[in-house]
Please model this.
Amino acid sequence: MKSTPRNLRLHIGLFGRRNVGKSSLLNALTHQDVAIVSATPGTTTDPVEKPMELLPLGPVVFIDTAGIDDEGALGEQRIARTRLALDRTDLAILVVADGEWGTFEEGLLEEIEKRGLGAIVCFSKVDLTAPPKPLLDRLHERKVEVVSTSAETGAGLEALRAKLIACAPVDYFDSRRLVGDLVETGDVVVLVVPIDKEAPKGRLILPQVQVIRDLLDSGAVAIVSKEDELPGVLRKLTSPPRLVVTDSQAFEQVAVDTPRGIHLTSFSILFSRFQGDLAEQVKGAAAIDCLQDKDKVLVAEGCTHHPIGEDIGRVKIPKWLAEHSGASLEFITVAGREFPDDLSPFSLVIHCGNCMGNRREMLSRIMRCRQQGVPITNYGLAIALCRGILKRAIEPFPVALEAFKAAKEEGETCS
Model:
């Protein structure tokens, strides 16, 4: 359970005013002192994440947030971080104490519902103050899930666990697969894994490991090779593989070495489908052909890492985009939880595969781009387009291929 990647865990966020008992509730639910508990308002300064097993849901991450009604300049920073936590939340618990329900709680509940998140209103400290019946009646009439708890006595904790299970998003239980739905039992899939300066010493990176595991779970056979070994591997096979999956940086050479009748894609493109919205990001890739001089491009990395000289997001992709577009472009890079609220300065957003994030956060970013009319794509799709092989790279995904064709027809009007 502890080795389950965070992106596969249900993310449960606790939100509310300062000192309503969010941290105490988290500690009671997890049976551990995960978060600092104090009578002093504002003790929690940054979101605290606790991976755990919540049966029968399985692996989850609880996110304990700072009071969203915090005060002062530092309080504003805490509130901003708390609101960012909504972007990666699948299921929200709105914690209320002393029956205090006002415009603040109403606005927070509306924000949670507007985002399409599952929501539970949790009245805490009921050993001290019971929630007023008229308020309970109003919430029930609105079909809001409500539970009353006490971290001190343990009252209501099992009911809250049951509510979490009942309110978990339906798609958390779906059969979302990285690659397993593209193969059948016994199929051979060749994975091309370059060993270069960016490859970690002595191990594979998370996307490669997860693809191998999904193939094994599907009864398929995974063959792993470096890019210069691919021709020899293909010659030794008695029949063509069902699919070749490559690191996006090796796309150009792998496309040459892979016979045209064999499906080809990349780890990054698989993650675009798994973590986000492949069709929407394919449309964003088509927008690369509309870039003009002085356009700004936002490059977003879902994790933080120490960049090397030939960093993919900071060096290689900007170079390939400039070569392909022939335009003088300005690139701005953000990493980790950073992602601008205002995307209007940008003509394009290029996001990594988000293997270290979760799908809710990625979909929130895609939604924000769509709302502001800014196209968004991902590393693998952008590289494939710059190398002239995007249509081939998305052939395994008919819906995405149709989306790309439609986007290209619209793009003919690019000025």
Summary: The longest strand covers residues 10-16. The chain has three domains: 6-173, 180-268, 279-411. Residues 6-173 form a domain with the Rossmann fold fold (CATH 3.40.50.300).
